[in-house]
Automatic annotation (TrEMBL):
PROSITE patterns: CYTOCHROME_P450. It comes from Leersia perrieri. Heme binds at C141. Its cofactor is heme. Gene3D superfamilies: Cytochrome P450 (1.10.630.10). Keywords: Heme, Iron, Membrane, Metal-binding, Monooxygenase, Oxidoreductase, Transmembrane, Transmembrane helix. This is Cytochrome P450. The keyword Transmembrane helix applies. Pfam families: p450. Residues 1-12 have a biased composition (Low complexity). Belongs to the cytochrome P450 family. One of its GO terms (molecular function) is oxidoreductase activity, acting on paired donors, with incorporation or reduction of molecular oxygen. Residues 1-29 are annotated as: Disordered.
Length: 204
């Protein structure tokens, strides 16, 4: 699969994006649908002052950040088949007979891109409903809250402290390679330090 859509971010609050090619490159697209609007909204939503780092207490207020993470997890679920489950009894589901003791894999990757479930499923639209990247029911991931805190804090901090820029003109390659957690085939590059945050970063 090659989505050929793009990830991430950043802005320096200048409004000269339409002019310099270098600035245009900074505005790396998110997804195929209205990427600039997604970016602008994310950056605007992170109204943390440059005098301090992002803190865990900020996260409940950063709703759009959460939407961005959940939409990323919909398109790229780290556990695309969840973990194997086993039926404890004979059961009929959607016309299929499942015998007791059958190993069951839930293909969330396919569910998350099913056009019968999602409008324009390949498009990155943070405003849409969440997928099921943490599973469902009794065996749902117990680390979900911790994971959302860690990912949220890390992503918000990266956006807050650094300017992001693509290395070249090519779009970010979102192909995955084999592995249980669907790792990216090519690493994502690269960071340019935002000078205004240097005094805070040097204290860490
Ligand atoms: C973005 C991060 C994470 C994702 C996407 C994720 C996703 C999942 C998924 C899909 C499952 C299987 C659910 C099912 O089969 O129904 C699972 C299980 C589990 N996860 Fe996570 N997880 C994440 C982070 C974490 C963290 C941070 C912890 C612990 C601190 C954790 C602990 C567990 C455990 C213990 C299970 C097994 C639960 C069981 O079998 O009853 N996960 N996770």
């Amino acid at each position: 699969m090659n989505m050929n859509d793009n990830t991430a971010v950043a802005d320096d609050n200048n409004n000269d994006d339409d002019q310099a090619p270098a600035t245009a490159r900074r505005r790396t697209m998110i997804g195929k649908k209205d990427p600039d609007a997604c970016l602008d909204q994310l950056i605007r939503s992170l109204c943390i002052p440059a005098t301090r780092m992002v803190e865990a207490a900020d996260l409940p207020k950063l709703n759009y950040l959460r939407c961005m993470i959940m939409e990323t997890l919909r398109l790229y679920p780290p556990m695309p088949l969840l973990v194997p489950h086993e039926s404890t009894t004979d059961v009929d589901v959607a016309g299929y007979h499942i015998a007791r003791g059958t190993m069951l894999l839930v293909n969330t990757f396919a569910i998350h891109r099913d056009p019968k479930v999602w409008d324009d499923p390949e498009a990155f639209i943070p405003e849409r409903e969440d997928g099921i990247p943490f599973g469902m029911g009794r065996r749902r991931c117990p680390g979900e809250n911790m994971a959302m805190q860690m990912v949220g804090l890390t992503l918000a901090t990266l956006i807050h402290c650094f300017d992001w820029e693509r290395v070249g003109e090519e779009l970010v390659d979102m192909s995955e390679c084999s592995g249980q957690t669907m790792p990216k085939k090519l690493p994502l590059e690269a960071i340019q330090h935002r000078a205004s945050m240097a005094h805070l970063l040097s204290k860490i």
